[in-house]
Amino acid sequence: MSVVIRYQSDRHVGWQLAVLDRLDSWEGLTAYFDSLVASHAERALIGGCPIGSLAAELADSNEAHRRELAEVFSLWEAAIEQVLARMKAAGKLRPDADPSRLAATTLAAIQGGYLLSTLNKDVRPMTDALEATMAYLLSFAGQAMGEGRGAER
Fold first, then answer.
1. pLDDT in tens, 52-64
2. What sign has the CA pseudo-torsion 5, 109, 153, 86?
3. What's the whole-model pTM score?
4. 80 Cβ contact list (under 8 Å, min separation 6)
5. CA distance 138 to 66
6. Which residue in 137, 148, 149, 140 sits closest to 110, CA to CA?
7. Which of 87, 70, 71 is nearest to 32 (CA)?
8. Which residue has the higher pLDDT, 21 or 1?
9. Binning pLDDT at 50, 70 and 90, where does residue 5 land?
10. Which of 44, 79, 124, 130 is the most exposed place for a label (fewest CB within 10 A)?
11. How many CA atoms lie within 13 A of 39 on its CB side?
12. pLDDT in tens, 27-44
């Protein structure tokens, strides 16, 4: 099964890691969130998050697979955290913002959005979850480069 996990990880998380590696702005995060919604819609809202679906199926039945999938999620979360850390270093997030906690919250919203959109065959739950996440992230905005609380999604 590790081959399947690796394949799905490379296919569905790999492109995100490459995108996230270049992001350092609110506009970039918005574009990333929009790309997640568009990608899910292009798949006709079928299957949810391929990595999340594997985790739901395998986490309780195989410890090695659970660890492998947890590592994929850790890499994904770390990539989001790095975006937020770069933004914090640039003054786009307040000094008291915790990129690690914000990244965990963001990934949870992404996963919930995938699940509910797939279940309801409607992209709106994912869009709403990511819009709410962006509003939450913006509540930690700094004032660097004119970005901050007035930014729109």
1. 999 999 999 999 9
2. negative
3. 0.91
4. 20, 103, 106, 107
5. 33
6. 137
7. 87
8. 21
9. very high
10. 44
11. 18
12. 999 999 999 999 999 999
Does the pLDDT of residue 152 top 80, yes or no? no
Over residues 55-114, the pLDDT tens digits come to 999 999 999 999 999 999 999 999 999 999 999 999 999 999 999 999 999 999 999 999
Q: Output the six-digit token pair for 50.
A: 């391929």
Domain spanning 2-143: CATH 3.40.50.150: no
Amino acid identity of residue 15, one-letter, is W
- Alpha-carbon separation of residue 145 from 10, 79, 83, 136, 151 (angstroms): 35, 23, 16, 20, 11
**CA diameter of the chain:** 50
DSSP 140: T
In the block, residue with structure tokens 């990880």: 9
Residue type, 91: G
Query: Which residues lie across from 93 on neighbouring strands?
Result: 141
CA neighbor of 114 nearest in space, from 70, 81, 73: 73
Tokens of 77: 């979360």
